[in-house]
Amino acid sequence: MPSTSPPSGGPSIAPPPAGQVEADVAAALAEDVGSGDVTAALLPDAADSAYLLCKEDAVICGRPWFDACHRALDPDVRIDWRVAEGDRVAAGTVLATLQGRSRALVTAERTSLNFMQTLSGTATVTAAHVEAVRGTGTGILDTRKTLPGLRVAQKYAVRVGGGHNHRMGLFDQVMLKENHVRAAGSLAAAIGAARAMHPALPLIVEVENLDELREALAAGCDRILIDDFDPDMRREAVAIARGAPFDSRIPLEVSGGVDLEGLREIAADGVDFISIGGLTKHVHAIDLSLKLGPPPA
């Protein structure tokens, strides 16, 4: 698969793992098709064409899953894309045309659209958040609040929309919260235990006040999460982290109570990242349709 470019004009995005795409598609088709598509069986299994239409403004994402759905049912299907992954399109845009067997086109329709509408929705909302902080130097992060079974797909869509990925799961980064601090006896002790047990993994530390911030900065970690700080505390946190003796060595992440309207104000305070669960949790599916026949002139 070719790499893709996000709408922000940033670097190319690595394609999703082919094995994961195939597994996602196999599970989705098994769910939808079951023992066989009894409705498609009413159609003559003849050569036919179709076109994919986007009915609203969107950032397009999900081509690998769309293609895999159709090729799983008709390996000889021809799919001609008119847009690239990550392109912004207007309502009424024909995204692709297809040439294949009529029954396979109809059977793959809903599953392929489900992937495209969901992932385009995630990419579109991510792009809006990225645009809101453009020029501030603040990056937009996702979270683990994803649709079950679609984490890799949705996190890929976040990247296509110009955002960055937080940890993939519970295995690839260590994240300390109040329960860990309580168990260890202090924040510094919790950080020391985490470093000793997982020296090769990135360490993120959540702090609840400015004293804990100073303690985390002194103990050292890879990123500090300031959760639910009010604006005055947030600005003071930035000043502390940027000033001597810490000198901006550890980036700050904001989460909690973040919405699109207040995003720029938070970014303007100088934080490095803002994590937003709504990118993947509050999915607005993009309105798409797949119609048999040639596209309108």
UniProtKB/TrEMBL annotation:
<dbReference type="Pfam" id="PF01729">
    <property type="entry name" value="QRPTase_C"/>
</dbReference>
<keyword id="KW-0662">Pyridine nucleotide biosynthesis</keyword>
<comment type="pathway">
    <text>Cofactor biosynthesis; NAD(+) biosynthesis; nicotinate D-ribonucleotide from quinolinate: step 1/1.</text>
</comment>
<dbReference type="GO" id="GO:0009435">
    <property type="term" value="P:NAD+ biosynthetic process"/>
</dbReference>
<dbReference type="InterPro" id="IPR036068">
    <property type="entry name" value="Nicotinate_pribotase-like_C"/>
</dbReference>
<dbReference type="InterPro" id="IPR013785">
    <property type="entry name" value="Aldolase_TIM"/>
</dbReference>
<dbReference type="GO" id="GO:0005737">
    <property type="term" value="C:cytoplasm"/>
</dbReference>
<dbReference type="InterPro" id="IPR004393">
    <property type="entry name" value="NadC"/>
</dbReference>
<keyword id="KW-0328">Glycosyltransferase</keyword>
<dbReference type="GO" id="GO:0034213">
    <property type="term" value="P:quinolinate catabolic process"/>
</dbReference>
<comment type="subunit">
    <text>Hexamer formed by 3 homodimers.</text>
</comment>
<dbReference type="GO" id="GO:0004514">
    <property type="term" value="F:nicotinate-nucleotide diphosphorylase (carboxylating) activity"/>
</dbReference>
<comment type="similarity">
    <text>Belongs to the NadC/ModD family.</text>
</comment>
<dbReference type="InterPro" id="IPR002638">
    <property type="entry name" value="Quinolinate_PRibosylTrfase_C"/>
</dbReference>
<protein>
    <recommendedName>
        <fullName>Probable nicotinate-nucleotide pyrophosphorylase [carboxylating]</fullName>
        <ecNumber>2.4.2.19</ecNumber>
    </recommendedName>
</protein>
<dbReference type="InterPro" id="IPR027277">
    <property type="entry name" value="NadC/ModD"/>
</dbReference>
<comment type="function">
    <text>Involved in the catabolism of quinolinic acid (QA).</text>
</comment>
<keyword id="KW-0808">Transferase</keyword>
<dbReference type="InterPro" id="IPR022412">
    <property type="entry name" value="Quinolinate_PRibosylTrfase_N"/>
</dbReference>
<feature type="domain" description="Quinolinate phosphoribosyl transferase N-terminal">
    <location>
        <begin position="37"/>
        <end position="120"/>
    </location>
</feature>
<dbReference type="InterPro" id="IPR037128">
    <property type="entry name" value="Quinolinate_PRibosylTase_N_sf"/>
</dbReference>
<feature type="domain" description="Quinolinate phosphoribosyl transferase C-terminal">
    <location>
        <begin position="123"/>
        <end position="291"/>
    </location>
</feature>
<dbReference type="Pfam" id="PF02749">
    <property type="entry name" value="QRPTase_N"/>
</dbReference>
